[in-house]
């Protein structure tokens, strides 16, 4: 609420003040920095908006979230479902938003459409206007899983007001510029995002996306997170109007402010005694000196954006008792009349006739009246309201008394009114009043979203409303088409407002939303919105215009293992790179449809990254009619199967770069997980090539833990994994054999001939197409012969159910 200042000094102190109040007004920032001269500030208090001065010094610390918190946006009520890989994952239906710990957008998903930044852009906290930086990464989507490298340039551009459906917030605007370079064409692309973070609610409240799709843009429609703690002074000692005997007193308490406290000062009878700063919870532990009689102790606190409040204590110091040991004054001689005692000069005193202390008002205007008298005659009167000077009166010579009377404008909640008088010799005296303004607000409903009579094409929406009423909120209901969809119970008279957000699933045609609110007195209000849901007509697509089937691939090569107990492989990384080159080159796979994970790529082949690439990325990207190729070169490993499922008694694993050889279960990819991955991929044709082995014997691409002895391995597990239609697995060797690397080839034998076959050597019928069946027959023949020539025993295997030949690559006929 914007507070008004008195129209003139004359309004408060009378006409005589008009010509004697010539002190220029000080800016708020200077007043905060020089509290000692605050009493020399304007006739009227500063009118600068809070936070406008010194906004470049405002700071915001990075928040942290907990699972279960909600984020109410115009596209849904997102719930923080989990925290993984230092990402906050918010979900709403089939939608997902991933935020980094720095609150930058890491990924967005809607159905099978997705976009992600890897790694997420980094922002330096605490936020402060002028901070800037640059961070690199790769942008991926469902049509470009390989990704497009780019750089994010970011800058905290301003601390400003931002308008949203949930209201207006003071927020930091962070400007992002994404420069991208297409790998295939080399063309440059630029995209800009603008994000607003509001410290008072600790949320991103708006994001603007300049891309025509507006994929990332949103704004909040309701703030469900509790607002930051308001500025308040809590004094635990002493109590008001306390009488004390010692002239030193300890002031105890604390100052709280979610925005952050910039300054705390303590004054006694108008004289500043101590000043402290820092933090959102500032302890008070100050010793103040009192004078005999009445004392007014004021604590003034100011936040980082200029909000000020005060709390006053009136204390009375007893006059010292007469000293019984003092020598009595001698009596005058007989017949001599003693002199009359001097009449004491009355002490300077301030009397506030109105308002009474602890008064409560239902209007913002209160009458101020009173006078100052005594001492050497008052010369100056200063009136402050909530720590800000609102009026001043100066006299050229001491007067017997000075009166004041006028209305003052209160702010909602607690108000501290202080009148300070100064006499001709500089002595000061104060009087304080604490009054409250409780604005009468009738029960009302403000629906933030959606607009009335709006037409939408999305079946799901949210209803967001703000309910207010000074009598307190008892109940809020949201009904859709005559049925209750959400109910919110208020706290009664103490709850003056309630922000509600309810998800709603619309039916086709006109929908009626009714928001009903009941206050603590039983008063009921309603607001009605009509929403027309008209889903876009499905485009009539002729069979010939359907998109051609796509081909996707994830290529994995692991050679430089992190564990010293796992032997390094010389050519596994080169194997993966060779397969990547042949698929994206003569094989004709789109570069953006192929993801490479090796020791030398930015995204390394850890267990988490492998599971993400196979079980998440391919599941989101490949359609039913597409073809998926998976290649793995690295170690395989066996472990005793405690389940008793395997006929040979051994569970089999593929070893990622971060494998722990003594804990394969939690650090390696179990072959049984391949079956789960198969079930997640919609594509009807999935082929897996594995250049690894599982026997645990020395000399090949295999190892076993110290707790597992090498033994005979059978192929039952491969048959189990490929029972699903359209799935095939081609392994470099039989389960009990080893997969050999040859320095003469610079590759594993299996991969070498796999690459040669994909280049065209496997095209047996010379039709320019290499099918899976042709490729397997070629590889099986060449690998078996080459292994035998070097004294080895290696026979590739293929398991799976396929209908007809499966074309993998198209080449030029020889």
How would you sum up this structure, described in words?
It is a single chain. It contains nine helices and 49 strands. With 814 residues, the chain is mainly beta. A hairpin with a 2-residue loop joins strand 8 and strand 9 (167-181). The protein has four domains: 9-52 and 229-320 and 357-437, Sandwich (Immunoglobulin-like), CATH 2.60.40; 70-222, Beta Barrel (YmcC-like fold); 444-533, Immunoglobulins (Immunoglobulin-like, Sandwich), CATH 2.60.40; 548-810, Rossmann fold (3-Layer(aba) Sandwich), CATH 3.40.50.1460. Helices cover 11% and strands 43% of the residues. Residues 1-53 and 706-714 have low confidence and may be disordered. The strands form eleven sheets. Strands 1-2-3-4-5-6-7-8-9-10-11-12 form a twelve-stranded antiparallel barrel. The chain has a six-stranded mixed sheet with strand order 38-37-39-43-44-48, sandwiched between helices. It is elongated, with a radius of gyration of 39 Å.
């Amino acid at each position: 609420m914007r507070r008004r200042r008195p129209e003139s000094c004359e309004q408060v102190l009378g006409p005589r003040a008009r010509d004697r109040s010539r002190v220029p007004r000080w800016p708020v920032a200077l007043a905060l920095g020089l509290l000692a001269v605050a009493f020399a500030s304007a006739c009227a208090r500063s009118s600068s908006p809070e936070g406008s001065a010194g906004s470049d010094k405002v700071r915001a610390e990075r928040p942290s979230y907990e699972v279960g918190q909600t984020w109410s946006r115009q596209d849904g009520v997102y719930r923080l479902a989990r925290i993984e890989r230092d990402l906050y994952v918010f979900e709403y239906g089939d939608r997902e938003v991933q935020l980094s710990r720095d609150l930058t957008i890491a990924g967005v998903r809607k159905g099978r459409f997705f976009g992600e930044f890897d790694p997420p852009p980094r922002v330096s906290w605490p936020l402060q206007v002028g901070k800037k930086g640059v961070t690199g990464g790769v942008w991926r989507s469902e049509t470009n899983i390989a990704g497009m490298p780019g750089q994010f340039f970011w800058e905290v551009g301003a601390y400003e007001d931002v308008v949203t459906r949930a209201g207006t917030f003071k927020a930091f605007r962070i400007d992002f510029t994404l420069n991208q370079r297409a790998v295939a064409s080399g063309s440059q692309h630029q995209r800009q995002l603008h994000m607003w973070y509001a410290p008072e609610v600790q949320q991103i409240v708006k994001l603007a996306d300049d891309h025509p799709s507006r994929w990332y843009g949103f704004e909040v429609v309701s703030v469900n997170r509790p607002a930051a703690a308001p500025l308040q002074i809590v004094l635990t000692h002493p109590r008001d109007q306390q009488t004390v005997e010692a002239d030193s007193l300890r002031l105890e308490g604390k100052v709280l402010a979610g925005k952050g406290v910039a300054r705390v000062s303590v004054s006694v009878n108008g004289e500043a005694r101590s000043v402290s700063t820092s933090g959102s919870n500032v302890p008070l532990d100050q010793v103040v000196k009192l004078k005999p009689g009445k004392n007014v102790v004021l604590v003034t606190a100011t936040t980082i954006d200029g909000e000020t409040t005060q709390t006053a204590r009136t204390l009375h110091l007893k006059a010292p008792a007469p000293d019984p040991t003092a020598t009595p004054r001698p009596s005058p001689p007989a017949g001599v009349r003693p002199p009359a005692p001097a009449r004491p000069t009355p002490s300077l005193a301030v009397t506030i006739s109105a308002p009474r202390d602890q008064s409560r008002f239902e209007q913002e205007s209160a009458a101020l009246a009173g006078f100052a008298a005594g001492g050497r005659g008052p010369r100056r009167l200063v009136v402050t309201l909530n720590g800000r000077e609102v009026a001043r009166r100066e006299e050229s010579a001491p007067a017997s008394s000075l009166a004041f009377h006028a209305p003052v404008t209160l702010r909602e909640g607690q108000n501290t009114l202080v009148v300070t008088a100064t006499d001709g010799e500089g002595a000061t005296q104060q009087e304080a009043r604490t009054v409250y303004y409780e604005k009468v607000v009738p029960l009302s409903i403000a629906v933030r979203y959606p607009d009335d009579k709006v037409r939408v094409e999305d079946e799901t929406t949210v209803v967001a409303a703000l309910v207010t009423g000074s009598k307190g909120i008892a109940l809020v209901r949201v009904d859709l088409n005559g049925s209750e969809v959400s109910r919110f119970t208020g706290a009664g008279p103490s709850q003056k407002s309630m922000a509600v957000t309810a998800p709603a699933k619309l039916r086709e045609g006109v929908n009626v939303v009714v928001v009903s609110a009941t206050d603590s007195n039983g008063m009921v209000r309603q607001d009605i919105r009509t929403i027309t849901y008209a889903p876009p007509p499905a485009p009539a697509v002729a069979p010939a215009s359907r998109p051609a089937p796509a081909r996707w691939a994830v290529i994995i090569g692991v050679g430089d293992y992190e564990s010293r107990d796992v032997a390094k492989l010389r050519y596994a990384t080169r194997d993966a790179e060779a397969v990547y080159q042949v698929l994206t080159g003569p094989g004709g796979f789109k570069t953006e449809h192929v993801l490479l994970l090796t020791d030398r790529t930015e995204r390394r082949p850890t267990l988490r990254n492998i599971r993400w690439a196979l079980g998440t990325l391919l599941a989101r990207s490949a359609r039913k009619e597409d073809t998926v190729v998976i290649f793995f070169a690295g170690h395989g490993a066996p472990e005793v199967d405690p389940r008793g499922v395997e006929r040979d008694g051994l569970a089999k694993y593929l070893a990622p770069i971060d494998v722990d050889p003594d804990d394969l279960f939690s650090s390696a990819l179990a072959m049984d997980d391949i079956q789960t991955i198969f079930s997640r991929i919609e594509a009807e044709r999935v082929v897996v090539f594995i250049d690894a082995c599982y026997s645990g014997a020395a000399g090949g691409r295999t190892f076993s833990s110290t707790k597992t002895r090498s033994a005979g391995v059978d192929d039952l597990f491969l048959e189990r994994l490929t029972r699903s239609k359209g799935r095939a697995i081609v392994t470099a060797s039989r389960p009990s054999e080893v997969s050999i690397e040859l320095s003469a080839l610079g590759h594993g034998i299996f991969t070498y001939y796999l690459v040669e076959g994909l280049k065209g050597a496997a095209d047996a019928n010379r039709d320019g197409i290499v099918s899976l069946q042709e490729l397997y027959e070629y590889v099986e023949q060449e690998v078996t012969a080459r292994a035998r020539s070097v004294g080895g025993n290696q026979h590739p295997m293929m398991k799976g159910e396929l209908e007809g030949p499966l074309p993998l690559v198209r080449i030029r006929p020889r």
